[in-house]
Write a structure and sequence with these properties.
357 residues; alpha/beta; Isopropylmalate Dehydrogenase; ten-stranded mixed β-sheet; 41% helix; binds 3-isopropylmalic acid; binds manganese (II) ion
Length: 357
């Protein structure tokens, strides 16, 4: 009997449903030429659902999501819902409850895609950000006093546990070894100011490095990383960092790889249920216009295949994406693809099924 994967699809808000539909199409194409099946179940969550029902993430839905093989997410965020409600109530709750402690964000410039960095090309821009995904400033630790008064106090604490830091750093070393590229892992921190949190990160980094003598190690402060990512992106292979810095530098990474329409992310629990998403938001301005690039969502589907242990399907999707970007699409980085969202999905699905055409 064929292997079958149960994938929960959460199209979410804005352009999420449009891009996820193309990712599902491509996954179906990959399954049709692979030796596995995919069963999709769609869950209605997000801003529209919240406005209609006042429900954010009901317990029974969370339970069902935790029983599937992977979650495929479009976008969460609605212009008519106060910032934080849906992001915390859905996205962060899923990351935390399912203990998806890694946020993996490849930064790869494909041939045929323009980068705003003059003189750099696909061989220069090819690295991966490993972002810690369950701790740091994102835990909600802290509080406020005397809100709304002139004496207001707001505290937001960064939580870094030995266990959380170590498992993230170990994942990054393992990933760097498996990626087998430059075999270089860079810790991104701020040891000159955040002398508690990044002292822990730095000590654990060096301790764990002893188990990986084949991996070169390097360190850079987060502000310097922002500079080097623009000036010398070819220096990087894998970067490991905390939740907040990873959030920030991966948006910078998205820009140098051709924009939010290309950038994919994986929220990984190596021992549990992982979740895959394009990293751009819900883009309400573009909703329904069919102009949004589905490649970020399709590359997220590729990361899903890779994480589920279907490397052939993952490679097939990546080859198809590379082919379509190289040969078919026009000015992707400027947001003009020459095709609409569905047509791009069709081109990639076709290239997955008939790689030589
Ligand atoms: C991301 C997003 C989220 C984050 C938001 C929507 C909470 O920016 O996935 O990078 O900050 O992690
Ligand atoms: Mn972000």
């Amino acid at each position: 009997m064929k292997k079958a994967y149960d994938i929960a699809v959460v199209p979410g808000d804005g352009t999420g449903p449009e891009v996820v539909a193309e990712g599902v199409k491509v996954l179906q194409a990959a399954a049709s030429v692979g030796d596995f099946e995919i069963r999709f179940q769609t869950f209605d969550l997000g801003g529209e659902h919240y406005k209609r029902t006042a429900e954010i993430l009901p317990d029974d839905v969370l339970q069902q999501l935790s029983e599937c093989d992977a979650i495929y997410l479009g976008a969460i965020g609605h212009p008519e819902v106060k910032p934080g409600i849906l992001e915390k109530g859905i996205l962060l709750t899923l990351r935390f409850t399912l203990d998806q402690y890694i946020n993996l964000r490849p930064v790869k410039l494909y041939e045929g895609v323009d980068t705003p960095i003059r003189g750099k090309g696909p061989t220069d821009i090819d690295f991966v950000v490993v972002r810690e995904n369950t701790e740091g400033l994102y835990t909600g630790a802290g509080g406020c006093l005397k809100k709304g008064t002139p004496d207001e106090v707001a505290v937001q604490e960064s939580i870094n546990t030995r266990k959380g830091v170590e498992r993230c750093i170990r994942f990054a070393f393992d990933y760097c070894r498996k990626r087998n590229h430059k075999k270089k892992l860079t810790l991104c921190g701020k040891t000159n100011v955040l002398t508690y949190a990044f002292d822990l990160w730095e000590r654990v980094f060096h301790e764990v490095a002893a188990d990986y003598p084949d991996i070169e190690t390097d360190y850079a402060h987060v502000d310097a990383i922002c500079m080097w990512m623009v000036k010398n992106p070819e220096w990087f292979d894998v970067i490991v960092t905390d939740n907040m810095f990873g959030d920030i530098i991966s948006d910078l990474g998205a820009m140098i790889q051709g924009g939010m329409g290309i950038a994919a992310g994986a929220n990984i629990n190596p021992y549990g249920v992982s979740m895959f998403e394009p990293i751009g938001g819900s883009a309400p301005k573009y909703t329904g216009k069919k102009i949004i690039n589905p490649i970020a969502a399709i590359s997220a589907a590729q990361l899903m295949m890779e994480t589920l242990g279907e490397p052939v399907a993952a490679e097939g999707i990546e080859r198809a994406v590379a082919k379509v970007l190289r040969e078919d699409l026009k000015d992707v980085a400027a947001g003009k693809m020459g095709y609409d969202t569905e047509q791009v999905g069709d081109l990639i699905a076709d290239a997955v099924v008939s790689p030589k055409v």
